[in-house]
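Researcher: Here's the sequence for the chain we discussed earlier.
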Amino acid sequence: MVKNMKNEMKNENRDDLAAIGIGAMIVFIALILVAAVASAVIIQTAEKLQQNAQEAGEGTKDAIASKVIIINAIKGAGAVTTLTLELAPGSDSVDEANVAWLATCTAAAVDQGDMSAVVNLDGSGDAGFEPNEIYSIDLTLTNCGALDTTLYIQAGGSGTTYEVLNLEGSTQGQLVV
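Model: Thanks. This is the structure I predict for it:
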C-alpha cells in the first residue's frame, strides 16, 4: 500500500501539468505565426525596394543614355554653324524629329529648330539617330550667329545637352566649342 501511495498522483497535479503543456504549445504556435507574418512583411518590403530601385535606374537611363553629345562645332559661312553629333554610349535609337535645339545668346535673341536635316556621316542616309553613328547638321543661327551662344539639344524625353559656342569674333572654319 505504501508503494501505491508514492506513485499515486492527485488529479489536481495532472490538470496543472496538462495546462502548462497546452499553454507552452499555444505560445510556440503563436511565435511561429508572428515569425511568418514578420517574414512576409520583410519580403514584401524588399520586393518594393527592388521595384523602386529598378524604376529609378530606368528613369536615370532614359534621362542620360539617349542624350545627344556634341563632338565639335565649326563656324560656317554667315550665320551657319556645323555641328558633329553622336548619341551617348548605351543610348537607344532616337527619331531625329524628336530632337530639338535651342540657341540663346541674349535674353531676347533665340534661334530654334529640330534635327530633321541631320546627315549620317557614313552615307547610309538612315533616318533617326542610331547608337555608334556620327551625324552632322548645319544650324542657321539667324539671331545669334555673331554672338557667344548657349546651345541646348533635347532628345525626346531624355537628357538635355548644352554647350557654349564661342561665335563672337570667330572666322569661317574655326572650331567654336
